[in-house]
Design brief:
The chain is an alpha/beta fold. The chain has 2 domains: 1-42, no CATH class; 57-305, pyruvate-formate lyase- activating enzyme (Alpha-Beta Horseshoe), CATH 3.80.30. 35% of the residues lie in helices and 18% in strands. It contains 14 helices and 12 strands. It has helices spanning 2-12, 29-38, 94-97, 113-122, 143-146, 148-158, 176-179, 206-218, 239-248, 265-275, 279-282, 286-299, 318-321, 323-326; strands at 22-24, 44-46, 54-59, 65-69, 74-78, 81-82, 106-110, 129-132, 163-167, 185-190, 222-230, 253-258. A 7-stranded mixed beta sheet has the order 4-5-8-9-10-11-12, covered by helices on one side. The protein has a 5-stranded mixed beta sheet with strand order 1-2-3-7-6. Helix 4 (113-122) packs parallel to helix 6 (148-158). The longest helix has 14 residues, at 286-299. It is globular. The protein starts with a helix and ends with a helix. Bound molecules: iron/sulfur cluster (SF4). Iron/sulfur cluster binds at residues 84, 86-88, 91, 93, 136-137, 168. Iron/sulfur cluster is lined by residues 84, 86-88, 91, 93, 136-137, 168.
Length: 327
């Protein structure tokens, strides 16, 4: 088996910059040839940040779009992956998906998402924003191989749905050609207050994320930043300096959010186990830190949140077509 892996791992490497350490394990010659013919039922072993084996599976899902209703905005969300190999220690997704596998070490790729999404979009009469994604990163490393997000973007573009993307990965740049074609689209990068390998083992550096935003802006794409989570006792960045760099890179707005574990018990336990910190103690002085960051965001001119508000063209009434009303 080992010999077989060695023989083919060089060939099977995914060559997207730093994700090139993804190797494919084929269980036997027979499966290898089957994979080559049908690209089906692959199982990957990914060794990104800790040398620990990751499990990547191809699965089928029964729905893609999920409706989210907030107080002031209504939108859809879609998660093409279940699990996320970025493995952030504060992630709230484990509390949403309740999977017994170790967070950050598994991904289920929902391979039939593009077909299903096309069908679901065809059944929607009134467009709403589609948010990618709420419980996984749509551009986590395996997307370089599966291209599910890309194919779903193609489906969204066919109907020109308004889209908001949020990622921590420069892989989003691969899809610049598609992103530029949307009538309304926003691309955001997440930058937490603990952006380093200890807290976000699979995520690229802040400077690479800023460079990603800069290049998107250069292509005429409106960008934003989700500064979240902010952990009051763990603000490892010079926030003022960071905001200046974001402004210079063409970012239109910065939305920030404090760490929250209320209702996310599994995530709180994971955070405490992996960091050896008590969640209550890192939240001290929350109000002061929140106020300080709000001031900095505003003084850097990055508080234009309307950038993220898509509004539907008002429905035309008969009066709009009447010669009298035009007079
Ligand atoms: S990138 Fe997002 S979804 Fe992925 S582990 Fe980090 S916080 Fe969770």
């Amino acid at each position: 088996m080992n010999g077989f892996i060695k023989e083919y791992s060089g060939w099977a490497k995914i060559s997207y910059s730093e994700y090139s350490n993804i190797t494919v394990i084929f269980f036997c010659d027979w499966l290898f040839h089957k994979c080559m013919m049908q690209l089906a039922s692959l199982q990957y072993e990914v060794k990104p940040h800790s040398g620990r084996a990751l499990e990547v599976r191809e699965v089928k899902c029964s729905t893609v779009l999920r409706r989210m209703n907030f107080s002031h905005v209504s939108e859809y969300t879609a998660n093409f992956y279940r699990g996320c190999t970025h493995g952030c220690v504060y992630c709230y997704a484990p509390s949403l998906i309740h999977d017994e596998r170790r967070w950050g070490y598994f991904v289920d790729a929902k391979a039939n998402s593009p077909q299903l999404l096309r069908k679901e979009l065809g059944q929607i009469h009134e467009k709403e924003v589609v948010f990618l994604s709420s419980a996984s990163d749509p551009y986590q490393p395996v997307e370089a191989r599966f291209k599910i997000t890309r194919r779903c973007l193609e489906a969204l573009l066919e109907r020109d749905f308004p889209v908001i993307i949020l990622t921590r990965s420069p892989l989003v740049l691969r899809d610049t050609d598609l992103l530029k074609k949307f009538t309304w689209l926003r691309v955001g990068c997440s930058i937490s207050s603990v952006s380093n390998k200890f807290y976000e083992p699979g995520v690229v550096s802040v400077s690479r994320r800023i460079e990603t935003l800069r290049r998107l802006h250069e292509h005429g794409i409106t960008t934003w930043v989700s500064m979240a989570p902010v952990i009051p006792q763990l603000v490892l960045e010079d926030v003022g300096m960071l905001l200046k760099k974001l402004k210079k890179s063409g970012v239109s707005c910065v939305v920030f959010g404090m760490l929250r574990f209320i209702g996310y018990e599994e995530s709180r336990i994971m955070f405490e186990q992996r960091t050896n910190l008590r969640s209550a103690s890192v939240m001290r002085k929350e109000k002061e830190v929140r106020e300080e960051i709000a001031k900095l965001v505003s003084s850097n001119g990055l508080d234009s949140y309307s950038v993220l508000e898509w509004s539907r063209e008002p429905t035309k009434t008969l009066d709009d077509f009447s010669p009298i009303s035009q007079a």
